[in-house]
């Protein structure tokens, strides 16, 4: 193992712990929130040269384990309000993407195949863009360019949500969740008061449960083709996490949320360190970048307008938009920043449905725009 890989693992384990301790001791840092701080530190680490194969391993392992861990402590109950808001938020996101990509196309006039790939990416993430590439026969160099822009724009989009997007949405949209910091940290407080030996025993128990969820989900996903592997994988992990939460021992044993959030924090730091803005080359492709940014941020603005008109809950609106743009694996990061773990299931569900239909949407849009 290379020294840089060892350093990456050490930083992934140590930095979140240090930031958590710092936030407990400083009201200012606590107000900023661990996620934003870790993203900032990750960007700095990336500029200082933290580039290794271990980054891919850390980001690939933390979120699949974190999803069931966060879900374990909550028995999911569907209410008329959250079901209605979730459905409206999905429709709002879908319509917003269609309108934003169409308007951006008229302004920047990219190739219709590129428009289709960006539309798919804005409604389910990079995997949809890769599937549309194969379906439309797009060359590899174009895909690499779009993938670079996707990472840059999606990362900037995430920063916007974390820095002021969530708080702004809560000011202009209804806040039906009534989630407070005390509500979200109740499990934390309970687990932190336990003796060290009991903590370790609980964490080991939850790790085995989460690993079991991931293992079963991976085995089931292997039965499907590569283009839907991640969709099935996330769907199975979410379903198993919810299912395990109905076991009283799993649901009432303290520590699962702590452990899940620690993994989310590690993911936030490492994924931010992978951002490579300084090597981004615009050249003659600035119009494509403009089209990409116009689609992503245009869909966000339209979605917030529709959410205001439809009176959708602020947290549901934000996490739905993020699930569309950054795919289901990013949902725990936003749920953590909102201090609303109840929004996790809604975000994952919307993201999975968007993920499932994003490829077809992209191909359809590419076909329709080719007639303009």
Describe the fold and architecture.
- Helix 1 (3-25) packs across helix 14 (256-273), helix 8 runs parallel beside helix 15 and helix 8 packs antiparallel against helix 16.
- Mean pLDDT is 87; it is low at 180-189.
- This protein is mostly helical and 372 residues long.
- It has 18 helices and no strands.
- It starts with a helix and ends with a helix.
- The chain has helices spanning 3-25, 27-32, 34-47, 53-72, 80-108, 112-121, 126-136, 140-172, 181-184, 186-192, 196-221, 229-245, 248-252, 256-273, 286-310, 314-326, 331-337, 343-369.
Number of strands: 0
Helix content: over 70%
Number of DSSP helices? Answer: 18
Structural class: mainly alpha
- Residue-averaged pLDDT: 87
Q: Kindly estimate the percentage of residues that lie in beta strands according to DSSP.
A: under 5%
Order of helices and strands: HHHHHHHHHHHHHHHHHH
What profile does the largest beta sheet have?
A: none
Question: Radius of gyration from the CA trace?
Answer: 20 Å
Taking the alpha carbons of the first and last residues, their distance comes to: 54 Å
Report the principal-axis shape: globular
Q: Spans with pLDDT under 50 lasting ≥5 residues? A: 180-189
């Amino acid at each position: 193992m290379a020294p840089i890989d060892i350093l990456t693992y050490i930083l992934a384990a140590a930095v979140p712990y240090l930031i958590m301790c710092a936030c407990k001791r400083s009201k200012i840092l606590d107000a900023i929130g661990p996620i934003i701080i870790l993203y900032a530190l990750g960007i700095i680490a990336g500029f200082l040269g933290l580039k290794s194969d271990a980054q891919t391993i850390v980001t690939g392992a933390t979120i699949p384990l974190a999803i069931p861990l966060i879900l374990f402590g909550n028995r999911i109950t569907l209410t008329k309000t959250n079901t209605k808001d979730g459905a409206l938020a999905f429709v709002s996101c879908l319509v917003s993407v269609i309108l934003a990509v169409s308007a951006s196309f008229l302004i920047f006039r990219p190739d219709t195949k590129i428009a289709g790939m960006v539309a798919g990416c804005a409604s389910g993430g990079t995997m949809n863009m890769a599937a549309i590439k194969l379906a439309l026969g797009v060359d590899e160099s174009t895909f690499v360019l779009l993938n670079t822009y996707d990472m840059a724009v999606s990362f900037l989009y995430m920063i916007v949500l974390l820095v002021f997007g969530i708080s702004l949405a809560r000011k202009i949209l209804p806040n039906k969740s009534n989630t407070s910091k005390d509500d979200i940290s109740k499990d934390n407080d309970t687990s932190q008061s336990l003796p060290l030996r009991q903590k370790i025993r609980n964490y080991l128990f939850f790790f085995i449960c989460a690993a079991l969820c991931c293992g079963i989900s991976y085995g089931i996903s292997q039965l499907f083709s590569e283009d839907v592997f991640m969709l099935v994988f996330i769907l199975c992990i979410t379903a198993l996490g919810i299912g395990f939460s109905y076991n009283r021992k799993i649901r009432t044993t303290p520590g699962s949320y702590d452990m899940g959030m620690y993994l989310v924090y590690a993911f936030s730091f490492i994924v931010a360190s992978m951002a490579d803005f300084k090597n981004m080359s615009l050249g003659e492709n600035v119009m494509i970048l403009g089209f990409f940014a116009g689609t992503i941020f245009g869909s966000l603005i339209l979605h917030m307008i529709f959410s205001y008109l439809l009176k959708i809950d602020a947290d549901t609106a934000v996490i739905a938009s993020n699930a569309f743009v950054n795919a289901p694996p990013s949902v725990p990061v936003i749920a953590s920043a909102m201090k609303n773990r109840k929004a996790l299931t809604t975000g994952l569900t919307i993201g999975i449905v968007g993920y499932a239909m994003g490829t077809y949407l992209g191909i359809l849009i590419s076909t329709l725009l080719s007639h303009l």
